[in-house]
């Protein structure tokens, strides 16, 4: 059935409740991230009884969309085509794919595997409140949940600890993760909390830990990234540089990738949007891994993006039940239409 046979009959909202495996603590800039919460999702229905739902990109006015032909709002080959409907990017992708009776990743092109490597993004600064044993317990808990790779928040010396003490703790946490899981991919995320020299001191302390990537060590300043590239070229196992999460200038990130200064682009799966990622991916001279922290549902979205657009070797997992299936370190996508998930209220 073509989308042109469907007219939007209603756009309503619901509350999507989610929870983490535990209370998530601080990072380099922010306080506790809590144990879960709720977000508003939009539910879009057509006159033929088809329904799609999902997180919005932003606030928007759904009123003018009621009565519109669905084919005027979204093109399966490109994404949302009417600017007034952009805030419904994910609900409309879900709706269109359900009508076409295909998973979203198939509608995006099916250019990647449907088993998507996924790291835990939930190892924060819980040691500041409960000691190093908290980090050990969190790693074990996430491993038992199904993760095999881990991203560690670093940068304790930016706000929460004296600079050198924070650096030593960052190194200690990294070495603990490597000791516990010698085969894991270890990613680290500084949330822009480092100076160049401070980061180099950290890299000296973890030189034998074989990091998978370094994420947002400092703002995307070209001279700093050039200095980092030169430093990484001296390492036996060169980590990737991942950037572009926080308030990105996308054109700047794309240019840094063309210059070989950014290896992985991180624009947020919601903040950038699925339609925007469909435009961006062909221009990207680097890998992609859309930032997905916040709501476990975003991990599902990132997995569909990876399986659909390709060029996304690993994605961020928000440790929490209900939104995605995790098996031995991989999100396993179903063949159900749309995003394959019924509304979780």
Write the H/E string, N to C.
Answer: EEEEEHHEHHEHHEHEHEHEHEHEEE
If you average the pLDDT, what whole number results? 97
Number of strands: 15
Helix content: 25-40%
What is the fold-level CATH name, i.e. the topology of the largest domain? TIM Barrel
Kindly estimate the percentage of residues that lie in beta strands according to DSSP: 15-25%
CATH class of the largest domain: Alpha Beta
Tell me the radius of gyration.
20 Å
- The CATH architecture designation of the largest domain is Alpha-Beta Barrel
Biggest sheet architecture: 10 strands, mixed
- Low-confidence stretches at least 5 residues in length (pLDDT < 50)? none
What would you give as the CATH superfamily of the largest domain? Answer: Enolase-like C-terminal domain
Q: How many helices? A: 11
């Amino acid at each position: 059935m073509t989308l042109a046979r469907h007219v939007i009959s209603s756009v309503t909202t619901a509350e999507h409740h989610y929870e983490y495996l535990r209370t998530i603590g601080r990072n380099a800039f922010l306080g506790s991230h809590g144990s879960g919460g709720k977000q508003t999702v939009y539910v879009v229905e057509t006159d033929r009884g088809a329904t799609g739902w999902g997180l919005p990109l932003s606030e928007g006015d759904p009123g003018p969309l009621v009565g519109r032909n669905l084919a005027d709002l979204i093109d399966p080959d490109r994404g949302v085509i009417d600017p007034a409907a952009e805030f419904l990017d994910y609900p409309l992708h879900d709706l269109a794919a359900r009508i076409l009776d295909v998973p979203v990743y198939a509608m995006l092109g099916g250019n990647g595997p449907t088993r998507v490597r996924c790291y835990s993004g939930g190892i924060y600064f819980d040691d500041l409140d409960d000691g190093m044993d908290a980090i050990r317990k969190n790693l074990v808990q996430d491993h038992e949940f199904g993760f095999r790779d881990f991203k560690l928040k670093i940068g304790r010396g930016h706000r929460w600890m004296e600079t050198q003490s924070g650096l030593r703790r960052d190194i200690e946490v990294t070495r603990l993760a490597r000791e516990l899981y010698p085969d894991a991919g270890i990613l680290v995320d500084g949330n822009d909390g480092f100076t160049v020299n401070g980061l180099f001191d950290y890299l000296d302390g973890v030189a034998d830990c074989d990091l998978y990537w370094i994420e947002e060590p400092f703002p995307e300043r070209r001279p700093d990234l050039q200095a980092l590239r030169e430093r990484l070229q001296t390492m036996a196992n060169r980590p990737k540089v991942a950037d572009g999460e926080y308030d990105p200038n996308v054109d700047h990130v794309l240019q840094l990738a063309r210059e070989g200064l950014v290896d992985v682009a991180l624009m947020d799966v919601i903040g950038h949007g699925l339609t925007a990622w469909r435009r961006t991916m062909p221009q990207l001279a680097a890998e992609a891994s859309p930032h997905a922290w916040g709501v476990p549902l975003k991990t599902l979205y990132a997995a569909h993006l990876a399986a659909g657009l390709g060029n996304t070797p690993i994605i961020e997992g928000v440790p929490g039940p209900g939104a995605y299936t995790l098996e031995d370190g991989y999100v396993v996508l179903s063949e159900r239409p749309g995003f394959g998930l019924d509304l979780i209220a």
